């Protein structure tokens, strides 16, 4: 009781101090004007935001302050984000009982005055237009100045009692009225937080910009060719027939998270597909709903392409090319096909959240081919969408697994007309309960999933009985041209990555997905997931994906001999509470027929992995091959030795490390070293540490960049690679890892840090110009 009383008294004191300081600021510099930055700024002869300021913000600030998980919701990836400011509330809150109001930049408010009503406070001065007021009234400037006055303390590690860089650390988020106290209490917390200070030139540019009143201007207008392409696609997506309108709704609900671009036009220009109250040719009047299938509130919503103004971020960038070939395929699948749409479906949650009801009139084969053509993009929605933040969100997947797909020709054969329609009631998803829901409804979905699997088993047994057992051609081969046929998913503890290609010789598991499963994953984790939802919504989503993962694994196990299936299942789910996965207890009960694949060894699982690699070789992506680095054969062999390391020593490495290797010739190349953690199973929600199997850990080393959240940087001379590999092989303690970093690492305290960061970003843009975005440094370790 006394503790609560003390906390209330302290809070009252702090609020009182803030009110007093606000009055002092008003007296000195006049009252704040939240609309100050809503209009165009006066042009500056010597200062240009796009040319001078934005590159510094992008390379020094956006590495921590971008998107949902930016500290204090301060998103500096655009001018509009900088003027919006910061908010003390967390977007990622696994304990909230009620859904929160969304705060999506460019969506949920369109003026700074409106953002102030949603709890955002400015980080730029909104009072008098003088140099002094602009400096002293700016949280951004004072945080930068604080770092200049108190640079990083000397030493390899940051003092943990002064600077906490953990992802879930307590955040202060001071408003300008609280800055005096913040500077006094946290002198080491200047910006960039926990990283080296800006150079004198960089600090001078930002300081001059702030003193000048933080002027901004829109990005350069696009050439007329962009307008022509936009008009072509908006005309295509806004046809008047019922068939066209239903097709466009389906496309929108799959593209809304994407960064659409025209692959025949220059530059890194992206567009977002949005719903508007206005038709093409008129300014966009955005329809902002929590989910893409929520009721738009108008008689007809129009689908429009809106230019993306934010700096591309590696953690959210989902590029998707628009071109004439794609439009022709979509037209062939959805418009030229002989079927009728007699009425448009409802936007009621119980209907709209279930794509098998909403889009029943669209051909299943058209929907599936549309998803398969860019399967990495669709699956990336789960990886790069808002669900990917946090351990609980992704501990439902293994650290490295392959994702392959049922051939659309086979899917068309086995999914007779009406099967999905008959099973629609069993394919309901948690999002039908919207964003605030109870904790225990998942048991209902477990029952529905079990009923669906039983129906699916009967259906498949009838369609693929002894006369047509499953063979390797059941797996989609991408028509021997599409690399989306073979994907690898990596989990990095609290984030994840999906790439093209079957990376590694033997994955931890494999998911084989047909249309019903692939579609449900999208509507569960992307279209239907609300990052602002309550704990019940988040928990149900995570638990439901257990069913999805198991179903995909069941599909894959059907390719194995019947006698081998349960043994593989048992290894994947060691020490699992069998009641938790009741529908998974006996693989043979799911699909009884024997496989049609002829096996010749005593290890059919390893044999099947090798078959898949060979079968999908024509579409295998060579992007990450070590040999593609341009380094010598001897250097590549040492790198291969590093990648081959297994066991407990590798468990001391962080999730994702970027390695830079330099040969004596000066040739440099960059690699990603991913530590794959082994678990006895991933079917349980809690106690992950107790399910760890460090003796089975392994490494994946690829050329280029894999992962958006690096944990560590290494810079190694090629001649030192044998010693580096040996040191990793011998890792046995935190002290050993610290010695490894001391010799080869570029720590967050290293004065080379920003130059090294710039080199990595430049290399990323060179290697993958359409996919490259700014890395996120919120997970950089202090070890």
Task: Set down the secondary structure blueprint.
Blueprint (H helix, E strand, L loop, with lengths): L1 H28 L19 H13 L17 H6 L27 H6 L13 H6 L2 H11 L29 H7 L14 H12 L12 H14 L4 H14 L3 E4 L8 E6 L25 E6 L11 E4 L1 H12 L13 H4 L2 H4 L5 H10 L1 H10 L6 H4 L5 E6 L2 H7 L4 H4 L19 H22 L23 E5 L4 E5 L8 E5 L1 H13 L7 H23 L4 H11 L14 H4 L13 H12 L17 H11 L12 E7 L5 E9 L21 E6 L8 E6 L3 H9 L4 H11 L8 H15 L16
Parallel strand pairs: 1-4, 5-8, 9-12
Antiparallel strand pairs: 2-3, 5-6, 6-7, 9-10, 10-11
Helix pairs in contact: 2-8, 6-8, 14-17, 15-20, 19-21, 20-21, 25-26
* Count of DSSP strands: 12
Number of structural domains: 4
User: How helical, in percent, are the residues?
Assistant: 25-40%
Please give the order of strands in the largest beta sheet. 7-6-5-8
Task: Extract low-pLDDT stretches.
Answer: 7-11
Quaternary class: single chain
Strand content: 5-15%
Question: Main sheet, how many strands, which sense, barrel?
Answer: 4 strands, mixed
Q: Give the mean pLDDT.
A: 90
The helix tally amounts to: 28
Instruction: Find the structural class using helix and strand composition.
Output: alpha/beta
- Overall, the morphology is globular
